[in-house]
Amino acid sequence: MPKDQTLLIDGDILVYRTAAALETPIEWEEDFWTLHTDLKAAKDSIHQQVEELQDTLKSISIVVALGHPSGVLFRKQLCPSYKENRKGTRKPIGLLPLREWVRMEYSASSISRLEADDVLGLLQKTDGSTIICSIDKDLRQIPGLHWNLDKGTEEGITEVTPEMGSYMHLYQTLIGDTSDGYPGLPGCGPKTAEKILTVPTWEAVVAAYQKAGSNATEALLQARLAYILRAGDYNLDNKTVKLWQPPTV
Questions:
Q1: b/e map of 20-57 (b: 16 or more CB within 10 Å)?
Q2: Given this chain, do its domains 6-25+35-161 and 163-241 carry the same CATH topology?
Q3: Each residue of 43-98: pLDDT tens digit?
Q4: What pLDDT score does 130 carry?
Q5: pLDDT: is 10 or 81 the higher one?
Q6: CA torsion through residues 55, 58, 64, 65, sign
Q7: Rounded to a whole number, what is the distance in angstroms from the first to the last CA of the chain?
Q8: Which residues in 194-231 are b (16+ Cβ under 10 Å) and which e?
């Protein structure tokens, strides 16, 4: 295993959690409250978190991934309701300027039409030379090494095999993700998904959709929304995405 692995850091998670944690309520007088944030403290916190991560994992090289600032997502073009449920939700104070600072400070990697998850998936290697650092369960589709940002020791490193990654993708296709606004198979929770995936094949997923009164076309849409891109799935020249296709027998 390489000595100096490149840490692929989920910048969207890092920025959001830092901004949220440093919001401070102040009561200026009776019944008059405001929220404020100290952006310098937030920047210092980001520096500290990145340095601690490098120290824990004994790595110098890092890449911070952020969603593209345009906000134009290929998944939203597939499904207009994708992430519509987040509209109107209050964002932490200081989130946008902190994100832009991280973009400049760490020369963050962003790719047109992609979310940070996809950038991490595209950069991940399976030879042990990179480690995805996030708390996002969706990224467990991506083969290779992973580090949970909520862990505190090197034992937090886990390896996702191609088989595990494929299973997780089919699992997400079934259960969906309400936070991202795609439903998966209506009425299918974790236990039902596990039963369906006793034999983890695409055919089993399609059969479950059909049994529920849906069809293979809807199953494919949900699979494409759930799928995190990986190496070879994006053309940088023409900015096009290679959509997920069911495996051929």
A1: eebeeeeeeeeeeeeeebeeeebbebbeeebeebeebb
A2: no
A3: 999 999 999 999 999 999 999 999 999 888 999 999 998 988 787 789 999 999 99
A4: 97
A5: 10
A6: negative
A7: 34
A8: eebbeebebeebbebbeeeeeeeebbbebbbbbbbbbe
| Among 140, 118, 4, CA closest to 65 | 118
Q: How many CB atoms lie within 10 A of CB 162?
A: 11
Total-model pTM: 0.94
Please give the structure tokens belonging to residue 115. 């979310």
In the prediction, which pLDDT does 1 show?
46
Per-residue pLDDT tens digits for 126-154: 999 999 999 999 999 999 999 998 875 55
Give the whole-angstrom CA distance, residue 159 versus residue 146. 6
**DSSP label at residue 232:** T
Does domain 6-25+35-161 bear CATH number 3.40.50.1010? Answer: yes
Residue pair 82/222 in contact by the 8 Å Cβ criterion: no
**Closest to 185 measured CA to CA, from 154, 161, 220, 142:** 220
Q: Tell which residue, 189, 165, 181, 248, has the closest CA to residue 221.
A: 181
Residue extents of the structural domains in the chain: 6-25+35-161, 163-241
What confidence tens digit (pLDDT) does each residue in 189-211 have?
999 999 999 999 999 999 999 99
CATH number for the region 163-241 comes to 1.10.150
Beta strand 157-160 with 24-29: parallel, antiparallel or unpaired? unpaired
For residue 130, give the 3-state DSSP assignment.
strand
CB neighbourhood size of 232 (10 A):
8
